[in-house]
Amino acid sequence: MNFYIRMLIAAPIIIAAISIRPSYALEVDSESVYQKGLALYLNCGAKKDGRAAAVFFKEAAEEGHLEAAFSLGVLYQNGDGVPKNSNEAIKWYTIAADQNHAKAQFNLGYLLYEGLGVARDIPAGLSWLQKAADQGNAKAQHKLGCAYLTGSGVSKNHTLALQWLTKSAEQDNKDAIHTLGLAREMHAQKP
Q: What does each C-alpha distance from 76 to 34, 116, 158 come to in angstroms?
């Protein structure tokens, strides 16, 4: 069969595929889009451009890329390339956190627990911090340890405080190492 006949046969199939899913013609995987955003954000081979990075992160996040959703949350939390907006940060962190992204769970939990730019919601914050800590996130483990140590949002529980602080300190979290030392010292001084 010559080329023209094959094209006449294939053209309706290609047109039908494109009409069903227009992005099919120009489809790029979300990882590639995320990597372009990351290169722009980290200044890898191009001038750092948070605004352009946000565009790529959003495109990849909308295609289900968890790291892109997390990164977009970071940009909104810090106002890097986009207007600082805690509600947008929470939106993107929640998308990633719902899919068990530990860093997103920590950031979401921290924003809610501390009420940074949003209404403080200690129970929701602690819930997300717990999920991140259960996945081994050292910052979340430290924050939970501090909560149990001080009774902030939970009942004071020295045993749980030491447990979480120790797990965090074992990952070389300097804040946890310091807090763990103070917690042990405070406990030793009690009559």
A: 16, 12, 36
